[in-house]
Design goal:
heterotrimer, A mainly alpha, B mainly alpha, C alpha/beta, B: mainly alpha, MetI-like fold, 2 domains, two-stranded antiparallel sheet, 12 helices, 75% helix, globular, C: 6-stranded mixed β-sheet, 5-stranded antiparallel β-sheet
């Protein structure tokens, strides 16, 4: 009996220790980024461009670039993703096609982001002749976001009770009317929160934009779809690997990382908070 | 009129779904179109089993074995760190923590899973690598150990979150049945709950594995970048992803070096594809039950 | 002689390989309440769903035989399923209002047809709510969420929603099984009132309810229509032993 009690205590302690180590790691990690980043963070840092060969100044062009890349990517991916999810959940015939689409989506979801980068470079940059540009990067990121949005929308549509669909059909609504007037509006809050989470993911991606959109330095904000852009994640990478004055550039990299972190965490936290509230208030 | 709108709408959704297939096909096509011509010059066996990666020499050599070894070593290292930590945390959150703590921990993990990998890379490069260099008296801290630790921390949230889902999906009655038979809490966890959640846990590990194999920014920044088969955890290595990312900028479109990087991408794609297939099978088995 | 509004002829139905309905021929008379009773799993709900083609949305369903609405076979290729469903309304076991406002719930059927001006929709929503005895309770909060209503109110809202389409037939699928006794009584009374304008077919597992509200009763057992006659007759002198056994509580 004592041996069993001891084992119980031991196992519990191991679980405690594992969580403790994880939290410790993450605290050191986050603490380091916040501590180092905070020392360079200022209004000027966020809202001015880089100066003196990237050794001084701020990151505004990179912030703007990330904004445009992400916004365009989501605007492209969202309608496509929602329509696909509607097909999968509401029409779903022929079955073999649904199965094939699912396999395709799952494969896409598991494909490393660097491969998206290569694909974007081969197709958008070279084959279609967009060159390294905002639009090539946004399209590449849109493809990356597509499986996330499809999966999230599908899940959201599946949580709409069958009762609602029956009620609508029994009132003489067509499948299209049922989807557009009952299913989608009911699922919309959930679709939106999941989309917000994918915004966070897209904003932080580096590998897909390396060869399709990003540039280390540009003095100005992007003027059009065919301009190269700076982006926060790529900026961090470039400062750390291509920089010539580490003593001055590493702190800037930390500052950029903190801005990116705040951006991504705020976006995801918002989504998680909204979802929590939806779940609490949901009446069906 | 109405039925025309119905058909149009259905057609649009149908077309959108086809797009997912088209995109996948296009990705596979572009990888193979750009990568396959390499094998007019290099034999497939030399590519996979050759250990000399000198793509820019006068007589270039394209042996990817060192790169594959690099990928596998840090992936394995990451799993060795992340699986116990992730599983332990999952057990803690789902079985031991108070409901209130769980309410906080779950979304926190989700948040961590969303942190951009380049930020982890920065941390590894600017903080962990120098630390490891000084602790172990090395020339450089950019090596297998640092990379494994960073990759490991990165995938802990994935493993913890998915395993936790699997554990808390185990029906309550199984839990209670075990306790009612006089088992201690740990006995219930190890003998009934974890076996019942087995496939979900395995799926989470495979998911972490796939993520680690495909991760680019961390290995690009922390692994050091020398193309060698690692002899110890203090050696620098050059995994597949970072080779592609680092060298693509130096290539000329269409030359052999460019083709060899696409050939690496084919390899990487197949590796992750097989991993996904396994994950899928694991989950399929579970959903059938 | 009473007029037949809708009827089935030799109706057979399969879910996959499993035959659920066997040669059911049931007439439903105009402006009368017909109850379908029987033990669970006898196919009474499935039969009900045949009258507005709601079985079609379940995969692997195969139907033979006819369902005639007036003279039209609703399963023939020519008939339009959405117009059938506006002519044959349905209310489900569990109240299922949409997560929309009270007004938009009732207006839904009219809005989707897209041919009614706003003022007419407004009028018909009011009429329908009055007909379902809900108007006085909700007239001051038509824009509130339908989810804020009580269970009984929600079910009357679902009835109003079905009535707004101006149906000829109203199908009620165990409409009170999720409600408390008071709400149940109210809906039963409502049925007696509604039958003046609409034909009602109600499926119920509550024998007493069938006795209270229906003029005709059909008894189903294992997918067969065992007995169909005036309710008094079925309840007092059933012609089939199985009906008698069910009514006296031998099984069910």
């Amino acid at each position: 009996m004592n041996a069993r009690k001891f084992k119980d205590k031991l196992g519990t302690s191991v679980a405690w220790i594992c969580s403790g180590i994880t939290i410790l790691f993450l605290l050191v990690f986050l603490g380091r980024i916040i501590y180092k980043g905070f020392s360079v963070l200022s209004w000027n840092f966020v809202f001015t461009g880089p100066r003196e060969a990237m050794t001084e100044g701020g990151i505004y062009p990179a912030l703007a670039g990330t904004f445009w890349l992400t916004a365009l990517a989501i605007l492209i991916a969202m309608p496509l993703g929602i329509l696909t999810a509607i097909y999968l959940t509401s029409y779903g015939k022929p079955r073999w096609l649904v199965r094939t689409v699912r396999i395709a989506i799952n494969t896409l979801a598991g494909t490393p982001s660097i491969i998206y980068g290569l694909f974007g470079m081969a197709i958008f940059v070279n084959l279609l002749g967009f060159d390294v540009s905002l639009i090539a990067g946004a399209l590449t990121l849109a493809i990356l976001a597509l499986p996330m949005i499809i999966n999230a929308t599908e899940e959201a549509l599946r949580t709409v009770p069958q009762d609602f669909r029956d009620a609508s059909l029994a009132l003489g609504a067509t499948p299209r009317q049922t989807i557009l007037r009952v299913m989608l509006p009911t699922a919309l809050p959930n679709i939106l929160t999941s989309t917000i989470i994918s915004i966070g993911r897209v904003a932080g991606e580096t590998a897909p934009i390396m060869f399709t959109a990003a540039t280390f330095f540009s003095r100005q904000l992007p003027k059009g779809l065919s301009d190269e852009v700076m982006a926060l994640p790529y900026h961090i990478y470039a400062l750390m690997t291509e920089g010539t004055h580490p003593a001055k550039q590493v702190p800037i990299a930390y500052g950029t990382a903190l801005v990116l972190l705040i951006l991504v965490i705020t976006i995801s936290a918002l989504a998680i908070y909204i979802r929590y509230n939806i779940r609490r208030k949901r009446q069906w | 009129m109405n039925s025309y709108k119905e058909k149009l709408f259905k057609g649009i959704t149908y077309t959108a779904s086809l797009l997912a297939i088209v995109i996948l096909m296009a990705i596979i096509y572009s990888l193979f179109r750009e990568g396959l011509p390499l094998f007019k010059v290099t034999r497939l066996s030399d590519f996979i089993f050759g250990s000399a990666w000198y793509p820019t020499h006068a007589i270039p050599e394209f042996g990817a074995l060192t790169l594959i070894a690099g990928t596998l070593s840090v992936t394995l290292g990451a799993l060795i760190i992340a699986v116990p930590l992730g599983l332990g945390s999952a057990v803690f959150i789902s079985e031991i923590a108070s409901p209130r703590l769980r309410e906080i921990a779950k979304p926190l993990i989700e948040l961590l899973a969303g942190i951009p990998s380049v930020v982890y890379g920065l941390f590894g490069m600017a903080f962990l690598a120098p630390l490891i260099r000084d602790w172990f008296n090395l020339d450089t801290g950019l090596n297998v150990l640092s990379t494994s630790i960073i990759l490991g921390i990165m995938i802990v949230p994935i493993i913890a979150s998915m395993s936790e889902d699997a554990l808390s999906n185990v029906p309550k009655n199984i839990r209670e049945a075990s306790l009612a038979l006089g088992a201690t809490r740990m006995e219930s966890i190890t003998r009934t709950i974890i076996p019942a959640a087995k496939s979900g846990i395995l799926g989470s590990v495979l998911m972490g594995f796939g993520r680690a194999i495909g991760e680019t920014m961390v290995v690009l920044m922390v692994a050091g970048g020398s193309a060698q088969i690692p002899g110890s955890i203090f050696d620098s290595i050059r995994p597949l992803t970072s080779t592609i990312a680092a060298e693509m900028g130096e290539t000329v479109m269409g030359d052999l070096h460019y083709r060899s990087l696409f050939a690496l991408a084919i390899l990487l794609f197949l590796l992750t594809f097989i991993t996904n297939l396994f994950t899928e099978l694991v989950f399929l088995k579970r959903s059938k039950r | 002689m009473v007029e037949t509004q809708i009827r089935t002829e030799q109706l057979k139905l399969w879910f996959g390989k499993n035959q659920v309905l066997h040669d059911v021929s049931l007439p439903v008379y105009k402006n009368i309440v017909t109850a379908v009773i029987g033990p669970s799993g006898c196919g009474k709900s499935t039969l009900l769903r045949c009258f507005n083609r709601m079985n079609y949305i379940i995969a692997d369903t195969r139907i033979e035989g006819k369902v005639l609405l007036g003279k039209e076979d609703i399963y023939s290729g020519r008939s339009d399923v959405t117009s059938i469903r506006t002519r044959v309304g349905m209310v489900f076991q569990k109240p299922n209002p949409f997560p929309k406002s009270i007004f938009n719930n009732v207006a839904y059927g009219l809005q989707i047809q897209g041919k009614y001006p706003k003022c007419e929709i407004r009028d018909r929503v009011e009429q329908s709510l009055k007909a379902a005895w809900l108007w006085d309770e909700v007239k001051n909060r038509l824009n509130c969420s339908a989810m804020s209503l009580s269970g009984g109110q929600q079910q009357r809202l679902c009835i109003a929603r079905a009535l707004a389409n101006g149906p000829e037939v109203l199908l009620l699928d165990e409409p009170t099984s999720a409600l408390d006794p008071q709400s149940t009584a109210k809906i039963e009374e409502l049925c007696l009132e509604l039958k003046k304008t609409v034909t009602i077919l109600i499926v119920t597992h509550n024998i007493a309810q069938a006795g209270r509200v229906s003029d005709y009763t059909a008894f189903m057992y294992l997918g067969n229509l065992v007995e169909f006659d005036l309710t008094e007759k079925v309840f007092t002198v059933p012609s089939d032993k199985r009906t008698e056994a069910y009514l006296t509580g031998v099984f069910g």
